[in-house]
# Entry
Amino acid sequence: MGRYFFNLHYGAGTGRIAIDKEGSVLPDAAAARAYALQAARDLVRCGRSDAERDWFACAFEIVDAAGEPVLTVPFSETVPDAADA
# Structure
């Protein structure tokens, strides 16, 4: 188990970031990726916002408790590829 932080990067090239200061305790990086994808789906579905018009240009940067990058999960990964459908 480890603590993972999900920093939200808004839109490509905007430089806007929402830092996750609490994080979530999860078993591993695969669980952190699944958690990020579900959170992204929730934001896209329910997070209608005037501040962010293109959720698919956003991404979660997942870092560990030491602040080291683990992986990046683009919101576009919430939509399956046509080949996977």
The first helix runs from residue 29 to 46. The chain has one domain: 2-78. Strands lie at 2-10, 16-18, 24-26, 59-64, 69-74.
